Structures are given as structure tokens and as C-alpha cells.
Amino acid sequence: MNHLGYASSPAILQYLKAAADYGLDPAHVLNANDVSLEVLNNDVKRITGEEFQRVLAYLARATQDPCFGLKSSRYVQAGSYSVLGYMVMNCKSLKEAIKITPTYERLVGDMGHTEVLSQDDGAIEMRWHCHYPDPTVRPHMIANVLGSWINFARFLTDKPNGNPRKIYFEFPQPDHNAMLQFQSMFQCPMEFNCDHSSLIIDQKLLALPMRQPDEQLLKTLENHADILMANISDKQPLPMQTKNVIKGLLVEGIPRKEMVAKRLGMSERTMQRRLQQHDTSYQNILDDVRQEQAKHLLISSELSIQDIAARLGFSEPRSFHRSFKSWLGMTPGEFRERER
Fold first, then answer.
1. pLDDT tens-digit profile of 212-248?
2. Total domains in the fold of the chain
3. What is the 3-state secondary structure (H, E, C) of the chain?
4. 202 in the same domain as 74
5. Domain limits at 266?
6. N or C: which end of the chain has fewer CB within 10 A?
7. For residue 92, which of 223, 211, 237 has the smallest C-alpha distance?
8. pLDDT digits (tens, 9 = 90+) for 129-143
9. Which of these three, 156, 186, 206, is where a domain ends?
10. pLDDT of 140-179, one tens digit each?
11. Based on the domain organization, do 199 and 258 belong to the same domain?
12. 152 found inside a domain
């Protein structure tokens, strides 16, 4: 049974190109792990997550380099993200590109999911949750994903020195020589052994325009992406897809129901009916996301409770207090006091 979903060919090609730098033949690597050679020349080929994890574990052993995953991020290009890569190229700004990532990242694969969290100063935290359990693979994959984000953002905005404010890694700090390579790549403060992996992007960087945005082409690509998303086999349950879309759109406030349905490639009525088949509703999922975001803002920001209520789309603080107490059995103020 396939427990780790699927991955697109472009996703694994980054690692195979890096493997060649170590004298490893990509075809031999695939053969050694019983993975189809179609991966090398078929951009729409998808392999199982188990196959992908097996290849990465093999490469980690073969290279014996703690920076293998990091170095593979140098090979990122638009095609590495399938259609999503070309979509973000045609967004107006880095912020807009980040906003659509959680919605369409399954076109790249099921290796993990992105969570976008707004900071009280206008910055954004992009968290990446790795789905692969192998402890040998996880550090390489996390370093690759965060490194690829940074390298691609620098390319898109034509800012080779565009650096995040800070990066958090869930794995232990590597040795001195490896740390020098991490510092050279990210050029910002880093913390290790954290409970999540993420990067913080300042508002100034978020506002940077893309090199050649094309709004009309973006719409065409979005329509194509919606079709591809609908055709992905073994896809996530609709409630999880809906939740991920809402999280991605939260950057600009609580999204309208019809906007979420459009992102999911269906009408509002169809979305509601299919969610009911999963014994949930748009409102229930929105409340779950609001609860997660409320807890995050109460713990990590200095925003007043009134400001948090407004940011989460509550008409007045009293409604927020009432909802929060129904979620956790305490007021927002009591929760903030307890967690701090």
C-alpha cells in the first residue's frame, strides 16, 4: 500500500543532477532502487513516495555528505515545481507567489505541505512539514526545500542577495564545515533542533516584483493547474485540500467561500455538497484554521486581542472571545497568559 503519496519527476531530478556531481550515474541510482528510468526524460511521470524516499536514502549513504540536500537546491528551476513553477513566475510579487503555493504544491508531490503564517509586522513565516519518516532522508529533504525556495525567490526577483530574516530547522546543527555551507547559502541567522522547519520573509522582500509577470498567462496556467489537480490520483481528502487552500489565502485575510471553491476547481455548491459527504462544512474547516491561527498569533505576536480578532475576520472582539472559549474552554487572554 502506498502511504507516502506520489512525487513528480522534476522533484527527484534535482537530487539526481546533484548526484552526478559526486560521480554517481543517475540511471544507475534509479536501477539500484527499482525506479523507472522514465523519470529521466518524462516530466509528467510520477513515482511513489516510497520510491522517492528509497532513492534519497541511497544518495545520503552514497555521498556521505551532510550537505547533499542543500547542494541539490542549486539545481532548482521553474520546471522543478511542475506547472506551479511557471505560475509563480507570472505572479506580480513574491507575496502573491507564496500565497498560491499551498494550493498547488501537490502538483510537485506529496513529500510535505506548506503552511503560511502572517506575522504582526507584515512578515510571513513559511513552514514546511516533511511527510517522509526516514530520519536519514528528512534533513536532506528539508534543506533542499528551504534552499530551493530561497534560490528560486532570488532568481524570480532578480535579487541574488535577497535573504530571509531567519531560518528554523528541526534537525540538529551540522558540523563546522557543513555549517559554513549553510551560512553561505542562506546568509541569515539559523536555529536548529526546533519543533518545525521554516523561514521568515520580511515585508520588504514580499513586495518585490517578479521579473516578467503576465497576469493573463497566470490565469491560463491556473486553469491548467486546476485540471491537473483534479486528475491527480490518490489525492488528499477534500477537507484537507480545503484547509490548505484557506491557509494559503489567509495572507490577505479570511478568503471568500467562492474563491476557495475556485481554487479547488469546482463550484461553491459542489464544494459544499462534497464536504458534507465528509461530514464537515466550509465553516467547520474555516473555524479550524482560525483556531490554529489564533493560537499562533496569541503566542508569537504582540498584537492586541482586538487586532487578532479583526485579522481573523471576526466582526467584534466579543465574537472572537466567544468562539475561542468554545474551542479551548478559556478566553484568548487566559490562553496567552498560560502559554507565555
1. 899 999 989 988 888 887 777 445 678 877 887 787 6
2. 2
3. CCCCCEEEHHHHHHHHHHHHCCCCCHHHHHHHCCCCHHHHCCCCCEEEHHHHHHHHHHHHHHHCCCCHHHHHHHHCCHHHHHHHHHHHHCCCEHHHHHHHHHHHHHHCECCEEEEEEECCCCCEEEEEEECCCCCCCHHHHHHHHHHHHHHHHHHHHCCCCCCCCEEECCCCCCCHHHHHHHHHHHCCCEECCCCCCEEEECHHHHCCECCCCCHHHHHHHHHHHHHHHHHCCCCCCHHHHHHHHHHHHHHHCCCCHHHHHHHCCCCHHHHHHHHHHCCCCHHHHHHHHHHHHHHHHHHHCCCCHHHHHHHCCCCCHHHHHHHHHHHHCCCHHHHHHHHC
4. yes
5. 236-340
6. N
7. 211
8. 898 889 999 999 999
9. 206
10. 999 999 999 999 999 999 998 899 999 999 999 999 999 9
11. no
12. yes
pTM of the model: 0.72
Residues in the chain predicted with pLDDT less than 70, given as ranges, are 1-3, 233-236, 248, 250-252, 300, 340
Instruction: Name residue, grid cell 503564517.
Output: 117
d(CA 197, CA 140): 12
- In the block, residue with C-alpha cell 526577483: 157
Residue 96's identity, in one-letter code, is: E
Give the position of cell 478566553.
331
Of the candidates 209, 123, 200, which has an alpha carbon nearest to the alpha carbon of residue 163?
Answer: 200
Residues in the chain: 340
Regarding beta strands 46-48 and 6-8, do their DSSP bridges make them parallel or antiparallel, or are they unpaired? antiparallel
What residue type is 234 in one-letter code? D
Distance CA 147, CA 172 (A): 17
